[in-house]
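Q: what sequence does this backbone want?
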């Protein structure tokens, strides 16, 4: 009995220390565990941008599969999907062409200008998406609407993508000034 009194705290302490060591260990293979250099930051940015369209395609495939669309519903889905994928491609292209200096944090003006641009882009997207989304939604059965409206299954949940189009905060494409951590 006395051994178990000491064993639980010792195990807990051991797990806590292991977690602390793992947290402090270098991430992404950075040998010194410090901040990434300019080349690493640029490579991270390029990879993040290149994933924009792939995330959109995978999300559309997921939704399409989960909805089990009928032939009659397919044209409305395809019209909506084309808007979503066109937007994802446009965000990818804009991200890849973004060449601002990432060697330091952006200024307050840079952040607010970026935020304004993202909000305007989100509004333009919603203006084009909403009619197609409405048309699609009207073709869905009550069961399909439950899938479409459900958590992590609806049109605006991008599941694991770092910069999904519509995250919980409604940010259109995320803040591209952020670099990798570690």
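A:
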């Amino acid at each position: 009995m006395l051994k178990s009194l000491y064993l639980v705290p010792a195990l807990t302490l051991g797990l806590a220390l292991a977690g602390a060591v793992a947290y402090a260990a270098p991430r992404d293979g950075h040998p010194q565990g410090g901040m990434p250099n300019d080349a690493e930051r640029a490579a991270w940015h390029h990879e993040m941008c290149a994933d924009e369209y792939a995330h959109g395609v995978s999300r559309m495939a997921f939704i399409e599969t989960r909805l089990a669309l009928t032939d009659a519903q397919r044209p409305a889905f395809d019209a909506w999907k084309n808007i979503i994928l066109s937007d994802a491609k446009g965000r990818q292209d804009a991200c890849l062409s973004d060449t601002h200096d990432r060697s330091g944090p952006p200024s307050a003006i840079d952040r607010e200008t970026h935020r304004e641009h993202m909000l305007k882009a989100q509004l333009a997207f919603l203006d084009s998406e909403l009619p197609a989304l409405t048309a699609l939604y009207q073709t869905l059965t009550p069961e399909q609407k439950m899938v479409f409206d459900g958590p992590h299954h609806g049109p605006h949940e991008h599941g694991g993508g770092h910069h999904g189009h519509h995250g919980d905060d409604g940010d259109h494409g995320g803040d591209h000034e952020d670099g990798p951590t570690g």
